[in-house]
Amino acid sequence: MTVARLEAVLQKIADHIAARSDRGRPADYIPQLAAADLSRFGIAVATADGDLVACGDHESPFSIQSISKVFTLTLALGQIGDALWQRVGREPSGNPFNSIVQLEYERGRPRNPFINAGAIAVTDAIVAGHQPKEALGAILRFIRFVADDEAITIDHDVAASEKETGFRNMALANYMRAFGNLENPVDFTLGVYFHHCAIAMSCRQLAKAGRYLAFGGRLSPEGPQVISPERARRINALMLTCGHYDGSGEFAFRVGLPGKSGVGGGILAIVPGKASIAAWSPGLDHNGNSWLATAALEELSREMGWSVF
Amino acid sequence: MTVARLEAVLQKIADHIAARSDRGRPADYIPQLAAADLSRFGIAVATADGDLVACGDHESPFSIQSISKVFTLTLALGQIGDALWQRVGREPSGNPFNSIVQLEYERGRPRNPFINAGAIAVTDAIVAGHQPKEALGAILRFIRFVADDEAITIDHDVAASEKETGFRNMALANYMRAFGNLENPVDFTLGVYFHHCAIAMSCRQLAKAGRYLAFGGRLSPEGPQVISPERARRINALMLTCGHYDGSGEFAFRVGLPGKSGVGGGILAIVPGKASIAAWSPGLDHNGNSWLATAALEELSREMGWSVF
Amino acid sequence: MTVARLEAVLQKIADHIAARSDRGRPADYIPQLAAADLSRFGIAVATADGDLVACGDHESPFSIQSISKVFTLTLALGQIGDALWQRVGREPSGNPFNSIVQLEYERGRPRNPFINAGAIAVTDAIVAGHQPKEALGAILRFIRFVADDEAITIDHDVAASEKETGFRNMALANYMRAFGNLENPVDFTLGVYFHHCAIAMSCRQLAKAGRYLAFGGRLSPEGPQVISPERARRINALMLTCGHYDGSGEFAFRVGLPGKSGVGGGILAIVPGKASIAAWSPGLDHNGNSWLATAALEELSREMGWSVF
Amino acid sequence: MTVARLEAVLQKIADHIAARSDRGRPADYIPQLAAADLSRFGIAVATADGDLVACGDHESPFSIQSISKVFTLTLALGQIGDALWQRVGREPSGNPFNSIVQLEYERGRPRNPFINAGAIAVTDAIVAGHQPKEALGAILRFIRFVADDEAITIDHDVAASEKETGFRNMALANYMRAFGNLENPVDFTLGVYFHHCAIAMSCRQLAKAGRYLAFGGRLSPEGPQVISPERARRINALMLTCGHYDGSGEFAFRVGLPGKSGVGGGILAIVPGKASIAAWSPGLDHNGNSWLATAALEELSREMGWSVF
Fold first, then answer.
1. Chain D contacts of A105, Cβ < 8 Å?
2. Taking the CA of residue D274 as centre, how many other CA atoms within 13 Å lie in the half-sphere pointing to its CB?
3. Which EC number(s) does the record attach to this protein (chains A, B, C, D) (predicted)?
4. Average pLDDT of the segment spanning A33-45
5. What's residue A1's pLDDT?
6. Chain D residues with CB inside 8 Å of C258's CB?
7. Contact pairs from chain A to chain D, CB under 8 Å
8. What's residue C51's pLDDT?
């Protein structure tokens, strides 16, 4: 693939997106997200050749929200390995991201690491007796490392808002604690969780951060190994089956790529062996996934023949 | 890939499987399946080069059971196109294959075409006012065509047993009928359903039958088009997210291929662009998926580097 | 209590009911019920003194529907005694009358004998290997006996309509059969069930039929024993906790009497030691209980000081 | 009823209970309850004549736990009247006392005031912007008043243990807060909740405290009105349908009286117009209700003919 071809495709997609009047609705549970400008759209692709091709608002930082769960999962697996799977499952939940129903039926073990409960358990595994600040530092260092960008920061206003309104997450964390599936003080673990969800990244930064999943665990096909190829494949598998909550099947059906969405409107999508993609538009569908970022990725996947299927 | 390399890999896998003492348990709800010999194992791979490489009991017919749902889905989409999705969803259910709970909460619309309720709705779309015999004929013709094998037949003893014990399926069908999501008499639709689940195929036949999903809708990379490439991709996506019931995430995690299992112990797995695979061993895990066919596919995918992720 | 006092109270209630413009909505799943005249209202009280005081349309037969479940429960307990409780529970379900969800979670054992699933299991216990006609004959004989009225009959048009549209009940019965909690052919048991729900009775007849529950198991305080006093008390307890589906708590809260409703708009209410009451008005609330019969019983209970609490 | 007769019945019951080897299991989530002596049993009856007849360990204080919910409900209804029912329902839940499932399906509104979630909402209505200490003071004053006993106190060790292990209640409270059904800080409301559950009372004190429910809202049939007769009836109705969690139907079936249990092993039961009863034995059944206090109440109700049915 040539850069020119990819640039042309991205431009065409951006034009199509710009022309759309159906733009979804922003997340409205915190003011920082509710105030989003629905006209925004950005996309960036990090290729196997080391190119970074982008279009639209690709340098604007946005709240990555649940996309951070991909990085915390990677980090937790690096720290405790497969023992993590005793605390969280690997199956699609069939329920909304913040559902507590299965936690009751399945005695405090979340279905997968990408629904809120699962991601809180993963964060708890990272905290592991340390101070929240240290755990958060480790997460931020990892993301900066894989993105090769020290400028990535946490939006503390967003983190504060998350905490103020995070009663369902408080409920999930306490519920897991009741079943012994949370080892640190609830406030510690949730503090870290709210902050890593509040990390702000641009499409460029996010596309770069996802490279290790696209290139067999390396930052580039020939680069140094960050995680094993098998672990990269497995995280991709989880992204495909669980990365869009109860819209995961639909994303696989339409886009055909492993992906992880966040309510900030971002989506990280992986083309194994070929590219890491970040798309962003703040309007969401009813499942909480970006309406137009999904549309953009569907077109990109089709145009480039990138579906894994 | 050379045939010799693939033959060697399959033989090694067959040796590993033969040495295993953990063999799962056969389905026990009908005598024909309960009587299965747990020592049996077969595997067959239809490659893009047109080769058919196989090992073990690859010529023994077994009851394909839910694997037939891949073919009925293909047929129904061919008949009524995307209108089918008004009657059945595209999301993992997070529940066992024969669960009725979501049908109540979601007013009679099954989550996906591979759980029992969804497959019954798909069968109903195929019946579409015709006599059961005609509908069943169409299904059998389609499978024989894609497998290029006129010898494929229905095991009528199995079909009769299915019907005798099919009370949960009777419940599912009547429940959908109550919500207007079944158009034909329950007996008609279930009659066809029980019979297409009772089709018997060998690994060889099944691997050949899956080629159109591996080769962009064609029976071979250069062969005639059976379905569009996009439809093939989409069916593969559904197989990956929903093909193993509440073990779908696990199969994606371990094997990394679209696959569809049946309680007869068979699994059809697709390597897009490269191969169609059928593996069979009658012992099941607690989700109703073949314990050793899964293990064999995991090893094959790893050895050949075939994971889509 | 004097008859004159009771007559005056019933007349006042009837006047209040006649003046109401909020009248609920009739059951609409079969034409015979959907066509109901919402202006109809009747009430009848059988007293401990042997009087039958009534007002309004107290001689008009209506479809007793689920009220029949009180009589089938009595009959089944008479036939197999406490063994019945192995097949059906004694707890409020917290779910709608036709819900199938708990059946899945609780492996085919309905929560109580008054939700549809439970009543089907009770009917199955009555069929017990006999022909449907015989079982139905036994039910009808029992009701005619306790009502002291040979004129009570089944509305076969209603029964036929029930059967035609009874897909959810078909689902419930097949589901229980799948768990071994239905012993007779589904068609036999449901045939009897649909027919006993289609029994037509007037308020007068129904009030008389309920006397054995009001008078310690006797048709009058000094009359012959039909069932033991303890059994009568227990059936009353079940009516109070489960007799109005997921509106049972509300009925207990407002009326304070054991009662059983039917979607034909009838309610049988018991004042232990004092009276058996039947009220009828075909408009229903959102739980499927008669809107105005409930209002009438609330006023009657308050005026007469009849609440058991 | 003569005191002598009642004394004889209570003594016989106490003898029967003493002879039982099946004694249930104590609550084990906090050390204070887990350490309970299973041989303990007490019972006390406050009669309409003003007598207090008791037997066994009737002067030993025990943790009233959920029985306190009857008093907080009374208090909250006194403060805000029927507006309370906008925040909590009046239906049996069909689920365990600490279930969170229905809260999700029913958007944060608990089914009834006696399951944990409902009782927390009721406590929140009492807090109503005041300091926890004031709210708790009001609750304690009310209980001391209706029990006519200033010696009743809170066991602060129990309260502290409840708080330390109260993660499920933390989850419930936060979950309701997420839906706007908790108005005070979670810590405030739960602080009051944990403390009123930790009130210690003897059977004598508890039987006296329940008199206003037995005597139409008065502390004795001729005494001053504490609450209206209608409100007393309604609270009794709620106790009957919801007072024993998912064992409420069973208690109504066997005992036939409105009752409220606590995991400390106590049960308050009301015989409208006749008596208020407190029974206590710390061993519980699988629903969390006292195994032997239930048995004692069943025998007492039968012997005295006190069933409301």
1. 101
2. 19
3. 3.5.1.2
4. 97
5. 60
6. 309
7. 54
8. 97
pLDDT in tens, D206-215: 999 999 999 9
Mean pLDDT by 10 residues, chain B (309 residues): 92 98 96 96 98 98 98 98 97 88 91 97 97 98 98 97 95 96 97 98 98 98 96 98 95 98 98 98 96 98 98
Which pLDDT does position D212 carry in this prediction?
98
Q: Which two tokens stand for residue C74?
A: 């009595």
Q: How far apart are CA A73 and CA A80, in angstroms?
A: 11
Q: Which of A94, A240, A307 sits opposite B111 (nearest CB)?
A: A94
C-alpha dihedral over D231, D236, D240, D244, to 10 degrees?
100
Whether D2 shows a pLDDT value over 90: the answer reads no
Task: Give me the pLDDT at residue B117, please.
Answer: 96
For B3-62+201-304, CATH gives 3.40.710.10
Write the class of the CATH domain D66-199.
Answer: alpha beta
In angstroms, what CA-CA distances link C110 with C87, C106, C176?
7, 8, 9
Region A180-203: mean pLDDT is 97
Report CB contact under 8 Å: A112, B249: yes
A193 is catalytic: yes
Domains D3-59+201-304 and D66-199 are alike in CATH topology: yes
Q: What is the mean pLDDT of residues A21-41?
A: 96
**Which single residue is written with the structure tokens 């009782």?**
D119
Average pLDDT along chain A: 96
Block means of pLDDT (10 residues each) for chain C, 309 residues, are 92 98 96 96 98 98 98 98 97 88 92 97 97 98 98 97 95 96 97 98 98 98 95 98 95 98 98 98 96 98 98
Provide the pLDDT for residue C94.
Answer: 85
For residue range D58-116, list pLDDT tens digits in order: 999 999 999 999 999 999 999 999 999 999 999 998 888 888 889 988 999 999 999 99
Which residues pair with residue B261 across a beta bridge? B267
The alpha carbon of residue C229 is apart from the nearest alpha carbon of chain D, in Å, by 10
Q: Which residue of chain D is at minimal alpha-carbon distance from C309?
A: D233
Q: How far, in Å, CA of D309 to CA of D307, rounded?
A: 5
Q: Give the residue on B whose Cα is nearest the Cα of A274.
A: B309
Paired strand residues for A213: none
The alpha-carbon gap from D179 to the nearest alpha carbon of chain C, in Å, equals 21
CA distances from A140 to A114, A154, A282, C182 (A): 18, 8, 23, 60
CATH topology of domain D3-59+201-304: Beta-lactamase (3.40.710)
**pTM summary value:** 0.94
Residues in contact with C116: Cβ distance below 8 Å, sequence separation at least 6, in sequence order: C66, C97, C98, C168, C169, C172
φ, ψ at D279 (rounded to 5°): -130, 150
- Residue C240 with chain D: CB contacts under 8 Å: 240-241, 252, 309
Active-site residue, selected from the candidate residues C122, C245, C276, C281 = C245
Q: Is the pLDDT of residue D189 over 70?
A: yes
**Every domain of chain A and the residues it spans:** 3-62+201-304, 66-199
* CA B148 distance to own-chain centroid: 17
Chain D positions touching A172 (Cβ under 8 A) are: 171
Q: Which residues contact D204 (CB under 8 A, 6 or more apart)?
A: D44, D52, D54, D58, D59, D278
Closest CA in chain C for residue D309:
C233
Kindly identify which residue of chain A lies nearest to residue D181, measuring between CA atoms: A167
Backbone angles phi, psi at A47, to 5 degrees: -100, 165
Closest partner residue to D307 (CB to CB) among C233, C247, C270 is: C233
User: C3-63+201-304, which class in CATH?
Assistant: alpha beta
Q: Is the pLDDT of residue D1 over 80?
A: no
DSSP assignment of C171-221 equals HHHHHHHHTT---S-HHHHHHHHHHHHTEEE-HHHHHHHTHHHHBTTBSST
Distance CA A104, CA A85 (A): 18
